[in-house]
Each structure stands twice: as C-alpha cells, then as structure tokens.
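Suppose you are handed only these lines of text.
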Amino acid sequence: MTNHLFGAFRSRMPAPGRLLMETDDGRSITYGDMLARSAQLAHALAQAGVEPGDRVAVQVEKSPEAALLYLASLRAGAVFLPLNTAYTLLELDYFFRDAEPRLIVCDPDRLSGVEPLAASIGATVLTLGRGGQGTLASQASRQATEFSDVARGPDDLAAILYTSGTTGRSKGAMLSHENLASNARVLVEQWRFGADDVLIHALPIFHTHGLFVATNVILMAGAKMFFEQKFDPARILSLMPRATALMGVPTFYVRLLQQEGLNQDVAKGMRVFISGSAPLLAETHKAWRERTGHAILERYGMTETNMNTSNPYDGERRAGTVGFPLPGVSLRVTDPETAKPLAQGEIGMIEVKGPNVFAGYWRMPEKTKAEFHGDGFFITGDLGLIDADGYVHIVGRGKDLIISGGYNVYPKEIESEIDALDGVAESAVIGVAHPDFGEGVTAVVVRKPGSAISAADIAAAIAERLAKYKHPKQVIFIDELPRNTMGKVQKNVLRETYKDMYAGKAG
Ligand code: MLC
Ligand code: AMP
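From them, the structure of the protein bound to malonyl-coenzyme A can be written out as follows.
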C-alpha cells in the first residue's frame, strides 16, 4: 500500500527542477526541494514521537515551511490539525484537550503561552516561525532528505479541521486521504489545471480553501503558486501578469475592484478567477466582468465536505449561483421538517453525498449521526434550490452562522461570552450586510437594570478570549430583544432593523 494522498501528488509530480512556490520574500521552492524538505520534516515528526494516526496540531504563520509541514504530516501517516493564527490561548486549550495531539507546532512568539497547555495533555511542542526558523526547522535540518512514506489507505485520516457547531462547541471534521484526493482530482479536471498554471495563493492555509482547494489542486496538477504571506490587493495586481489563476473569498474581489489598476490589460494572461467560502454578490460578479472581461467562477463547499458544486469552466457561469454538483457528488434539496426530497425550484435543505464527504466529527458519534441521514446524505445546514437549468442556488442558512470575510463566526459562542458579563441581561449576535466582509458581526445587548456597561467594556472583556475576527464590529444597546410568541429571539427582525448600519463603509 502506498500513501494514498501523497502518493497521488507524487505520481503527478513534474521534473524536480520545476517550481512549486515563489514567495513574496523572494524565495523559490522547487518540487525537488519539496520532496527533500518534507522528508526532513517527516523524520523530525517521527523523532518527536509522532506515530501513524497521531494528531499534529499546528498554529503557525503562513510560510513555505508551514505548507511543507502539512505534507510531512501526510508522509508520516499523521493527522494534520491546522489552527487559525487568530485563535486565543483559551480557544487553543479547547482544541488541544479535544484532539489530544502528540505534537504541537507553534510560532516561537507563542511558545510561553502554549507550553503549559501542551504540558497538561502531555504533548511535545516545537516551534516554526514565519521565516522558517525555530526548533522544528533546526531538528529537520539534521535529517535525511529521503523518507519512506508511511502507507495510508483511502479511508485513513489525513486531517482534522475544527468547525464550530450551533451549540458554540467546535467539532473536529475528520477528513480522509480519499476525501482530499478525490476532491483535488475533480477540481483539477473541472477547472482545467495543468503543469503550466501559476496560482496566486493569498489565502490562509489553516482552512479548507487555502490548504485543500488551493494547495492540493496545485500539487495534483504539478503546477506553481505565488505563495503570499497575506492578501494585499496592490501586490495581487502586480502578480497577475505572471499568473494564470486566482482563488479567493468574495472580500478579495471586492477589495481588488477598489484598485484603480484593475483592468482587462492586467488580467489578460489570467485564465480563471475562482470565488468561494461565502456568497459572491451578483453586483461583484458583474463589476468584475465589466472591469476585467472575466466571469468569476463561483463554487460552493464546506469544511466537512470539501467542494460540492462549481459553476462550469466552459459554459455559462451564472452570477448568484454556485453551479452544478461536481462529478461524483450527489446533491438534493429536502424539506427541513420531513427530510422528503423537494421538487425542482423549491427551497429546502441542501444535502450532499460523495467521496468528498467527511468521515464524521472527532469523538462525537452522536453529533455525526444527527447530521447524516441513514442513506449517507450529509445535512449541510445551507438552504437552497436547484433551478430549471440545474444550477444550485444558496438562498440562506438553516444554521445560525455568520460568514465574515470568509471566516465562520457562530453567534452562540459570542453571545455566551457577552451574557456572562456583569451588567448584561442578554444579547443577540447577528450578521449584518457589510460591504467589505460580506457580513459584519453585530451584537445587540440588553443591559441589566442600573448597569452602565459600554461597548468598550464588552470589547475589553472578550479581547483575550475570542479570536479578533469574531469580535463585534458594532455593539447596539436596546431595552428588550424582539421575541415571537414562543419566546424565541427574532433575529430576522433585528437583521432587518439594522440592515443599513454598515452601508457605505469601506472596511
Ligand atoms: C481580519 N479581520 C477581520 C477579518 N479578517 N474581521 C472580520 N472578518 C474577517 N474575515 C480584522 C482583524 O482582526 C483586524 O482588526 C482588521 O480586520 C484588519 O486585519 P488584517 O489582518 O489586516 O485583515 P486582512 O488581511 O485585511 O484580512 C481580511 C481577509 C482575511 C478577507 C483577507 O479575513 C482572509 O484571508 N479571509 C479568508 C478566510 C478563509 O480562508 N476562509 C475559507 C474558509 S474554508 P483590527 O480591529 O485589529 O483592525 C470554507 C470552505 C469553502 O469556508 O467553501 O471554502
Ligand atoms: P466552513 O464551515 O468554514 O467550511 O464554511 C462552509 C459554509 O460556507 C457553507 O456551509 C456555506 O454556508 C458557506 N459557503 C461556502 N461557499 C459558498 C458560496 N459560494 N456561496 C454561499 N455560501 C458559501
């Protein structure tokens, strides 16, 4: 048996001298370098005690070494667990206790905070900095540049990615080698990636979009990427003449449209612009087409399922839709109450089944069971319809979720923090249309009688507890939350009341 996913990358690898990555700080990594350095890192993992099936939790800045660490983890047969760099120590503590990683890799600057957490679960800690420095790198540099990949089958776990549930407790989505391999293969084919492609990679690599959709597709195609530390619109524009593809969240496209230099000329060598992770407004699609001559190709996915649908490469890319189910993916729309399939055109729950769909939530068999039907369809929590031409439209969410700049934010998690503060009677956290982030996290708070708690007090209280992108952009105080006859808070009424509050804000 080979190593299922890494073996697939290997089998499509171009000549070792071909470039895999060019970075914004002037470094070049060839496919040969990738093989040698991921081998060294895989040895370093084994030396740190990582055995097949062990989790390797990683919270580091984006760098080529961070991407190579993902490949090393695959090769060592481990389960890669990437974590958002914005997570606070309190948030990390939860993930570590839940996943029980054998090894934690963190930024050197975070070591003093991470060490006690690691000690409490008996994990080893190594460091990896943005420039490739740290204890992991120094251990790896002493290792052999060849490594015999640990055999892993299609159903063995390759990664666990945490995604918050509606209860506010994060769940670890278990992704197998075949979940990732099948999706990368399909996307390479659907989006026509080949060895001559050059992707502008400006996404973080701790989520499905940047790690799997972008990186796995490039590895599966034997292509190259400009591996950017972060999204900088002016820089993206300067790379376009040397690139062929861009993948981004809608905020990327909104911000690029604000660049004066965006025009047909700068985009003429580009083959495809892909968007996902959050709804792309039809007006953004239209404005992009007018400015560049390109129709953005929108697709739809989730942490649990990888990519489910995509607009066509050839054929009409229809604004406001997420296209067709990918080959091998079955998609149906059902009545959320009865779970009965609905007729074409009717709005209901989107459910999917296929080799892309995850193996379940880590150590949560009950939650896993609750989100699948007996026939294997996964209940996405997204509401949508299939139109007469077969295009899938996402029209809303059956789950209480805000997507801000492509990051998921679960209102319940923030409400729990705010409600726990002295002086707060209750709160409701909602997503309000935001021109830059798509939705802006907004807290509506009812004070306790006599309390003078302010927005600044709330911000200060959650600063150390929640990742920055989850913090409310605005806090509104009202006397009473609107409720229906059942006593349930009417978030739709609040969303309607405050719908224009971010209108015209640039960022
Ligand atoms: C940053 N900030 C955000 C934010 N990103 N606030 C709300 N929502 C966000 N997404 C805050 C910071 O805390 C900071 O606050 C201020 O904005 C500026 O920070 P920054 O670091 O300069 O932000 P910037 O680089 O501009 O980041 C914006 C962004 C980034 C859109 C480039 O958020 C991003 O890369 N998003 C992509 C997320 C992603 O990869 N999602 C895929 C999930 S996978 P202050 O107060 O300090 O100024 C998935 C499945 C699928 O969904 O289908 O793909
Ligand atoms: P995550 O859990 O971070 O992977 O986010 C997945 C969620 O993002 C999905 O369930 C959808 O609600 C949303 N999403 C992803 N792509 C799109 C898209 N193209 N349009 C609308 N929503 C999307």
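What can we learn from it? The chain is about 30% helix and 25% strand. The domain at 231-397 is CATH 3.40.50.12780 (Rossmann fold).
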